[in-house]
Write a structure and sequence with these properties.
Elements (H helix, E strand, L loop, with lengths): L7 H4 L18 H12 L4 H14 L4 H27 L7 E2 L4 E2 L11 H25 L3 H25 L2
Antiparallel strand pairs: 1-2
Helix pairs in contact: 2-4, 2-5, 3-4, 3-5, 4-6, 5-6
């Protein structure tokens, strides 16, 4: 899928070059679906990451290399969004934009509203650290090796995002 807006060759620089583990045979488990729903659509979710990186990209248009990085990081977060949404569905719950543990629909107040390159980068680095901590909590809560493997793989992307963003911050 090559076009002016999206280039696969660039996308590969913003995620780890490893496949995502298959989650094709997970049994239905609504308790696990509830846990994953928070990573899908809670305050610190993939939905929030997509919105936050997309909005911050608009604010970074005067820094083309950073804006491009934000575009592709948002695309990676979108991949995570689809993976978690499909997992919630496979576990037996509809993947609404709803965090079952928080009893709350996703809303536009969740993304960090920052301006200025340094504040944006620091906020997004903190968000990636929070995402990793959230995935590690879910690994402890969900006793399923396939799901845990998926979360560990997603963590690798989040760690790569931290390294990329810290590189920009330290320039």
């Amino acid at each position: 899928m090559e076009c002016e807006f999206f280039q696969c060759s660039l996308f590969e620089h913003y995620k780890v070059n490893l496949p995502y583990p298959s989650i094709s045979d997970v049994p239905k488990n609504r308790c696990y679906a509830a846990i994953v729903s928070d990573g899908f659509a809670g305050k610190g979710s993939e939905t929030t990451a997509i919105a936050q990186y997309s909005v911050h990209r608009f604010l970074l248009e005067n820094a083309p290399d950073l804006s491009e990085a934000y575009q592709y990081i948002a695309f990676t977060e979108m991949q995570h969004f689809w993976l978690l949404g499909n997992l919630v569905r496979q576990l037996g719950t509809c993947p609404n934009l709803y965090s079952i543990p928080c009893n709350q629909y996703w809303n536009g107040t969740f993304p960090a509203q920052r301006t200025g390159i340094r504040a944006i980068l620091e906020s997004d680095i903190a968000g990636e650290h929070d995402a990793i901590a959230h995935y590690n909590r879910m690994i402890c809560q969900i006793d399923n090796e396939q799901i845990q493997a998926l979360f560990r793989r997603i963590i690798l992307d989040e760690e790569k995002h931290i390294a990329i963003l810290e590189g920009f911050l330290n320039r």
